Please model this.
Amino acid sequence: MMIDIYHNMLWPKYKGAVFSEAFSRARDTGREVRFFHIAATGYGRSAYGSVDTSYHQYPYRILFDEPYERLPQWRVALRLISEVWRSRSELVILPGYHRVEFWAMLLACMVRGKRRGVFCDSTMRDQPDRPLKRYLKRFFFRRCDGIFVYGQRSAEYVIAMGADPARVIDRCQAAALPHAYSPERAAQQRVANAARADAPKFLFAGLVCRNKGIEDLLHAFVQVLARHPAATLVLAGPVLESEGAGLRELAVSLGIDGATRFMGAMDIEQLAVQYSEATCLVLPSHTEAWGLVVNEALAYGCPVVVSDCCGCIPELVHEGVTGHVFATRNADDLARTLNRAVDTFGDVETAMRNCLDVASQYTPACAGRSIMDGCVKIIEEKRP
Model:
């Protein structure tokens, strides 16, 4: 039995970690699986750093040398049709459903009679759908033998789009942590380094831009400083070039520039230090299919405050236990929630243990096992 798994880019470390575990699971159970990446990188990912292949411990092929955004869709579609058509695999896992080339793969699988699955990270709260798009998604999902989703919100979405609940496979997402990571060491660092309650430190990790809710966060931080004058806000991540000057100017105009730090892009080792020190991670995104930084924060015992559009609710964010949820785009509610987080997570050790416990259930090993077990289920099930 051969399985082909496709993904858009090699760049993400987290996919490398998850696919490595999936490959290990396949090898242990006598299954043959091949991995294909359409391109090595693309769409500005290089701003976060170059491709780190140390996380990709599995055999893979890269189909194109150019960044993804430079590839004509017709060229990608023809190549993917050719790969599917010539493959001896019984099952093909598609990278998604939102691009022409993925539809081309689906049709090639249908004509060749191959079983097929698809990765989906969308949720009902992610992007609004127009009637035509909903119809097309229903068509796509109903013609897949399995749909791999990240969690409950994503599962609800594909079922609402017409997918058979029996064909939905979840828990397929996990973060890539430093190779030397251990929960024990993370716990020690958290206890030793966590910010004091009288000088809370709030951390954002990711692309610094308006769509991530940074304007909301800056406005909310004004109210937080009124209650906690020694508080700091750390923005760890590359700043979107077209918005960077405006966000910095906003911090100055609000009078919070002295307590706000634009740190720029950080690697996962540097972020580990930030997670160990922060009172909580803040993810105020306006749209967020999952939120891998929440996985990362919990793995370092760091609680989270997230907008209610995030896909990792309810799996990772347990209200008052590992984090708090606030209303998306509501800066006043965000301010109240950040102030509440200082009190809720004042017992650093208890909050840390709760976070590490939840994080341990969403590791690359768990996600890789879920993917491979789902593949086997698709192949072994009888088609109606």
